[in-house]
Amino acid sequence: MSYLTDIGITLDYAVDAYLKVCKDMLAEQTRFARTGVYNCQSADEVDKTVYSNPGIMSYHMHGIALSQFLWPNHYAMYDFFCQEVATGEHLVQSYLAIGAGHGLFLFKALDTFKNTSLLLLILVKSL
């Protein structure tokens, strides 16, 4: 809840986004199981369909952020990250993040490495 509050998202919106992501992923898995191909056949299609579509990207990022706590594999990855970040709290002098995704991992790093130089690279597509 503190993460949602910090990024200005209501619980209702996050739950709706999460359920929509689950529905989308299930539909994509079903399609792939039936046809052997994904809906999008190239990175350009994914970019046009998801990444360059603010309406889809917003719910997708917030839904995936919530999955970090609800899906065992996502939680295991996040938990591992948190444990590893904590071990370097006083040792890390600089931190490089390439793409912030939904921001949860970056949020944890920023919270942990308070006196660390941070470089965040975000790829921006020119229009």
Structure description:
With 127 residues, the chain is mainly α. It has a domain at 2-70. Helices cover 65% and strands 8% of the residues. It contains six helices and two strands, in the order H-H-H-H-H-E-H-E. It has helices at 2-7, 11-35, 43-51, 54-70, 72-87, 104-112, and strands spanning 94-98, 117-121. The chain has a two-stranded parallel sheet with strand order 1-2. Helix 6 (104-112) links the parallel strand 1 (94-98) and strand 2. Helix 2 packs across helix 4 (54-70), helix 4 (54-70) crosses helix 5 and helix 5 (72-87) runs parallel beside helix 6 (104-112). The radius of gyration is 17 Å and the shape is globular. The protein starts with a helix and ends in a 6-residue tail after the last strand. The mean pLDDT is 86.
| C-alpha end-to-end distance | 36 Å
Give the helices and strands as they follow along the chain: HHHHHEHE
- What's the rounded overall pLDDT mean? 86
So what's the overall shape? globular
Tell me about the biggest sheet?
Answer: 2 strands, parallel
Q: Strands across the major sheet, in which order?
A: 1-2
DSSP strand count:
2
Portion of residues within helices: 55-70%
Structural class: mainly alpha
Low-confidence stretches: none
Query: What gyration radius follows from the Cα positions, in whole Å?
Result: 17 Å
